[in-house]
Design a protein that fits this description.
Blueprint: E1 7-11, H1 16-27, E2 31-36, H2 39-49, E3 52-55, H3 61-75, E4 78-83, E5 94-97, E6 102-105, H4 108-134, E7 146-151, H5 155-158, H6 164-183, E8 189-196, H7 202-210, H8 212-220, H9 231-243, E9 250-254
Parallel strand pairs: 1-2, 1-4, 2-3, 4-7, 7-8, 8-9
Antiparallel strand pairs: 5-6
Helix pairs in contact: 1-9, 3-4, 4-6, 7-8
Keywords: Oxidoreductase
InterPro entries: NAD(P)-bd_dom_sf, Sc_DH/Rdtase_CS, SDR_fam
Pfam family, one: adh_short_C2
């Protein structure tokens, strides 16, 4: 898929992996629409790269539909979706609670919150984008109509202590990829996911500021290169998945060969 002049929607585009993706797509000549809950940061980042910004809550069907409607009114049907946004709560399945002196479990409500913010949101964004793509004309002789890139995590395979909700829901994102790609094969819409390892996103940079030794140890834990991933490296890989018409139905690790221990 040639990106020049095409419309691409990026969720979570106000920061981190989403912002790096939005910048890379704009630099490649795409018309970019940023979906993000953070209005101030999203508007600022969109203005920097000549993108449009739409305040979207990925956990709300109405908000997402409105975001797509507004983005398409400006640039036409998007031909790629890069979904980076998420929301979740963490905690052990059952862990010791210092405050009460006893054990407590991660509540069903907190688990459901993560499922909504990671897995259900991924399906919501991908399926609504695919519905729009299905009615668009093919872009090339292969009959390609669009591409979807979801963001999973190395935690989908290496879930650590306290990641029962995050890890399992990110594994669910990977589980969407192949059946969705096959559902959409006759429409010429490709679906892939990226499993980033430890990347220098705002939460991790916060760890660097609060606990530099922990940050240094995390960096050294990556086999090679011995550092956290740069969001631009995620964006570079994302571009290849969007551009390459033979990349379909696959989940890809991007992690410097790290395999995370239980803790």
């Amino acid at each position: 898929m040639k990106l020049e002049g095409l419309h691409v929607v990026v969720t979570g585009g106000a920061s981190g992996l989403g912002n790096a993706s939005a910048r890379a797509l704009a630099a490649a000549g795409a018309h970019v629409s940023i979906f993000d809950i953070n209005k101030d940061a999203g508007s600022e980042k969109a203005a920097e790269i000549g993108a449009s910004f739409h305040q979207v809550d990925i956990t709300s069907e109405d908000s997402v539909v409105a975001g797509f409607d507004a983005a398409r009114a400006k640039y036409g049907q998007e031909r790629a979706l890069v979904h980076c946004a998420m929301t979740a709560k963490g905690g052990k399945t059952v862990g010791f609670d210092k405050a009460s002196g006893g054990y407590r479990r991660l509540s069903t409500e907190d688990y459901a919150f993560a499922a909504e913010g990671i897995l259900v949101a991924s399906y919501r964004l991908a399926s609504l984008s695919a519905l729009g793509m299905a009615n668009a004309e093919p872009l090339n002789e292969d009959g390609e109509r669009g591409a979807i890139v979801l963001t999973s995590s190395a935690a989908a395979q290496d879930g650590q202590v306290g990641q029962v909700a995050y890890g399992s829901c990110k594994a669910g994102v990977n589980g969407l990829v192949l059946p969705m790609a096959r559902d959409l094969m006759e429409l010429g819409i490709r679906v892939n996911s990226i499993m980033p390892g430890i990347f220098a996103t705002p939460p991790m940079l916060g760890v660097r500021d609060r606990a530099p030794q922990i940050f240094e140890n995390l960096s050294k834990s990556v086999p090679f290169p011995k550092r956290l991933g740069n969001p631009e490296e995620f964006a570079s890989f994302m571009l290849e998945l969007v551009r390459n018409p033979y990349a379909n139905g696959q989940t890809y690790r991007l992690d410097g060969a790290i395999r995370m221990p239980p803790r």
